[in-house]
Amino acid sequence: MEPVENNNGPQTTTVYGSIQTRDGDGNPEKRKTNRADLPRTGNNRFVGLQMAAGISGKSAGDIRGQGDEQPGESGERARGGVGTVGGPTDDGKCASKKGQQLAGNTTTEKRDVIQTLRADAPVKQLCTVFNCPRSTYYYQPVRRDDGPLLDAIEAVLMHRPWYGYRRVVAQLKREGVAAGETVVRRLLRSMQHSRSVGAVRVKTTDSRHPYTRYTNLIRGMHPNRPNQIWVADITYIRMGTRFIYLAVILDAYSRAVRGWAVSRSLSQELTLNALAMALATGKPLIFHSDQGSQYAAWLHTDQLINAGVRVSMSDKGKPTQNGIAERFMRTLKDEHVDYADYADFTDAQRQIAHWLEFEYNTQRIHSSLNYATPAEFEQLTSSAPSV
What we know:
By secondary structure, the protein is an alpha+beta fold. The protein is 39% helix and 13% strand. It folds into 3 domains: 3-138, no CATH class; 147-190; 229-383, 2-Layer Sandwich (Nucleotidyltransferase, domain 5), CATH 3.30.420. The strands form 3 sheets. It has a 5-stranded mixed sheet with strand order 8-7-6-9-10, sandwiched between helices. Residues 12-26, 30-36, 38-50, 63-78 and 196-203 have low confidence and may be disordered.
């Protein structure tokens, strides 16, 4: 830096890249406070237009629209290439990297810096320096009122707190409330919604028995109408310090509950009562279960065979071969048992019956049924024209 004499007294010229700034009187204290109004990032201070000039390869006068082109220049060296007469001294890459460092990593920081410097340089050049798209700089977020949608979501969760975001969206749609999955997920996170409750495991399948083990007849099958395949399973339900047991029979196509029974023990009557309820409304082509003794017992299989139903069983140790029934039992625990409070065995029977026959069959929507209930799905199937 060299002092320069003019009519206003001695001045000091400081060069930043290709930009010159003057402090007015060369006073070191004044230089220290030069551009003190600009924001800091790290230990660096933005000074004038040094960053915009560095990336654009123009002088301060060019940026402000005050520069004049030098006449008489021609050829390649007059086109403003790096190192040419009137051109930048470098390609601006270092200045660009420096600009990004000084601007910080977040979009908010970059927008704040550009807003501060926009009086000294065009926004387009500043956005280039700080790697911030102009659309991002000019973007003004629109605040939306999520209150009505939150109320609608809470109303759904009050009745079905086990619902995940997909079922919440589907249920809102059924109620005439338009909401996207992204918005619902964000609101559920803000509500700290969780479906996790906990679990206990009790063995309900005893495959050590002398009864016939039937072949798996449904491997690879895809049911295409009701009452083609029924699937069955048994689960336990905690009641106070003891357990009660539930046997359920489902239609593999519509997921509808065909029969069920509750018992204090894993007796043969448990599965026989569920089967009697199911056969009173119809019969399937195939009845599928695991190899538990309750299903393999002759009293059970004889009723099926006498009704003209083929018996099918999963392979030993392969619960996934009865996946529909297994998933139903998990749904029962997640959506009913974990939220229920049974006063006694009779109350448990009443609450379970209400959930199976009303909540599950007529109210609960299924993603596998295109978010219809089992009752709705069977009605649509029966009314559809046969091909």
